[in-house]
Amino acid sequence: MDATTAFPDQLPVRSDHRLVADMVEPGARVLDVGCGDGALLALLMRERGVDGRGIEISREGVSQSVARGLSVIQGDADTDLADYPDDSFDYVILSQTIQATRQPRQVLEHMLRIGRRAIVSFPNFGHWRIRLELGLKGRMPVTEKLPYSWYDTPNIHFCTIRDFVALCDEVGAQMERAVALNASGEPVRVSVPWWVWNLFGENGVFLLRRR
Amino acid sequence: MDCGVALAPWQIAYQTYGELNAARSNAVLVCHALTGDQHVANPHPVTGKPGWWETMVGPGRPIDTDRFFVICANVVGGCMGTTGPASLNPATGKPWGIDFPVVTIRDMVRAQAMLVDHLGIDTLFCVAGGSMGGMQVLQWAASYPERVFSAMPIAAAAIHSAQNIAFHEVGRQAVMADPDWRHGRYLEEGVKPAKGLAVARMGAHITYLSEKALHRKFGRRLQDREAPTFSFDADFQVESYLRYQGEAFVERFDANSYLYVTRAMDYFDLAADHGGVLANAFRGTKTRFCVASFTSDWLFPTSGSRAVVHALNAAGASVSFVEIESDKGHDAFLLDEPELFATTGGFLAAAARARGL
User: Fold this and answer.
1) CA gap A115, A112 in Å, rounded
2) Where is the AB hydrolase-1 domain (chain B) (predicted)?
3) Is B272 exposed, middle or buried (0-12, 13-18, 19+ CB in 10 A)?
4) A1 and B325 in contact by Cβ < 8 A?
5) CA B301 and chain centroid, separation
């Protein structure tokens, strides 16, 4: 393998990844929980010069990440975050993963403990398309972005943007930034009220810190 | 040496593969396991069998001998050319036997470091090994952090468990119970504790496999017969296999070496050497680690690798870890495991980029 073929990172950057990257200070220490194939972590290292670490549950994801030169350990957000010391990272990121955890609240609490800041991005189950599927068809939504049937989905804890805001309140997290991305990956205008976000945001991205 | 004795003179036997580059920056040290030796990627001179890690080391393999200069040395206390209990004690002119000083993993690593010095290499690109080899990798990273650019401890642990010490003790007692052991002086008397060493190997071999692997390989199948013989012959294939493993082993391995090298593993407790905190062994390290374990390995289970990973995390080290799905037990690290090759190959390729190779 030569140096040019080894970097599969020239693909277009996902809009939610771009948004997360913009929230991270250059040179920070970052833990990406559920880092998948390492695309976000690689972006953060390339563009923000972070000192990055990852946790990923799937062997394939770990292997792909390691091949990118990332430091990723195979592990489970639900069980392994407890082993990380307080304040060991500047940012702990949970990108499109919270809905697949068994204990989302505990995971969020650990993130706020381990990191000075936490960044959470997740698919908004309050999006109008999902409400339409459930409301009109009366079936659990299966969309292009959430392609699983209810019985085989890894996504066991869906929430809406408003649900997540309520959880942040419960665990004592202060929102420093909150952005909703619409179906085209563009931010929903900041001036609109929460219910509009909750209806038109396909993804929520939150920058949090301990209150 | 850790036991307080200065061993001199001594010699170390090693093999190299590939070419050292002009910057002397592409050297990989491979550390062998308990009964391994320096013949990692060439046919064994005694048995004629392929090198013990040819799946991992060779042209186009993860440890690619077309890119890297690979060094593998026989451990101190071993019996394939490096000074060990079968070597002559200069004070007596007779084989050392059990007068040979007790060896530790750190002693093995010290000797390797002297070899690396001798080869004119300052920093190793990688130190890699499985099982006892993985212990040496961890010791290298702890003792000489600035000389280890990357490290791959596979199917290993930072401490030898009570269960593993127990298995080793059974093996040693088997050797010492053989009347031909002669209190370790069998070489002078022209005999060999072959039965005892074979029994030790048979017992140990079971620990290298999983129940599932044993079942798949042998089940309860009978060996060359239709029905049990109502005797203590090797009726079952698994018995026949173990007897063969035991007999083959004594052809290539010295019984006293087996005592010494198992003892070295027993004494290994990296945390104890660092105030009881494993993370202290790795404080401030710049080494990149790739740790791997196997799901069915009950000799060096994933929990031991995870303990290493936690310590490396606590020390702020750069560490990757993967638990590979395999039903082949501890031996999996020596076998054809594509996931192991994918992860380690990717790790080394990325590390090589970072090293400018």
Assistant:
1) 5
2) 26-335
3) middle
4) no
5) 16
Q: How far is B351 from chain A (nearest CA, A)?
A: 7
Give A30 to chain B, closest Cα distance, Å: 12
B3 Cβ under 8 Å from any chain A Cβ? no
**pLDDT digits over B4-57, tens only?**
999 999 999 999 999 999 999 999 999 999 999 999 999 999 999 999 999 999
Q: Determine the CATH number of domain A15-126+157-210.
A: 3.40.50.150
B316: which chain A residues are within 8 Å (Cβ-Cβ)? 88
A30, with CB counted inside 10 A (0-12, 13-18, 19+), is buried
- Long-range contacts at B36-41 (CB < 8 A, ≥ 24 apart): B36/B133, B37/B74, B37/B78, B37/B80, B38/B13, B38/B14, B38/B72, B38/B73, B38/B74, B38/B80, B38/B81, B39/B15, B39/B72, B39/B80, B40/B15, B40/B70, B40/B72, B41/B15, B41/B17, B41/B65, B41/B70, B41/B72
**Helix %, strand %, coil % of chain A (to 5):** 35, 25, 40
Classify burial at A104, counting beta carbons within 10 Å of its beta carbon; exposed 0-12, middle 13-18, buried 19 or more.
Answer: buried
CATH of the structural domain B164-263, one choice from 1.10.3720.10, 1.10.10.10, 1.10.1740.110, 3.40.50.300: 1.10.1740.110
The answer to whether the CB atoms of A66 and B322 lie below 8 A apart is yes
Q: Where are the domains of chain B?
A: 14-160+274-355, 164-263
Residue of A7, A73, A89 to mutate, testing the B interface (most B Cβ within 10 Å of its Cβ): A73
| Rama region for B320: left / alpha / beta (φ>0; ψ in -120 to 50; rest) | beta
Cβ atoms of A49 and A27 within 8 Å: the answer is: yes
Chain A contact probe: residue of B321, B325, B344 with most A CBs at under 10 A = B321
B14: enclosing H helix or E strand: strand B14-17
Nearest Cα of chain B lies from the Cα of A55 at a distance, in angstroms, of 9
Tell me if B243 is assigned to a ligand binding site. no
Q: Is A73 on the interface with B (CB under 8 A)?
A: yes
CATH architecture observed for domain B14-160+274-355: 3-Layer(aba) Sandwich (3.40)
Whether A68 sits inside 8 A of B350 (CB atoms) is yes
Residue A12 predicted with pLDDT over 90? no
What are the tens digits of pLDDT across the range A141-159?
888 888 899 999 999 999 9
- 3-state DSSP assignment of residue A120: strand
β-pairing, B27-31 vs B69-73, is parallel
| Residue B99, marked binder | no
Closest CB to A67: pick one of B288, B314, B350.
B350
The answer, yes or no, to whether ipTM is higher than 0.90 is no
- Dump pLDDT digits (tens) for B258-298: 999 999 999 999 999 999 999 999 999 999 999 999 999 99
Q: Reduced to 3 states, what is the DSSP secondary structure of residue A151?
A: coil
Q: Does B283 touch chain A (CB under 8 A)?
A: no
pLDDT single digits (tens) A86-137: 999 999 999 999 999 999 999 999 999 999 999 999 999 999 999 998 999 9
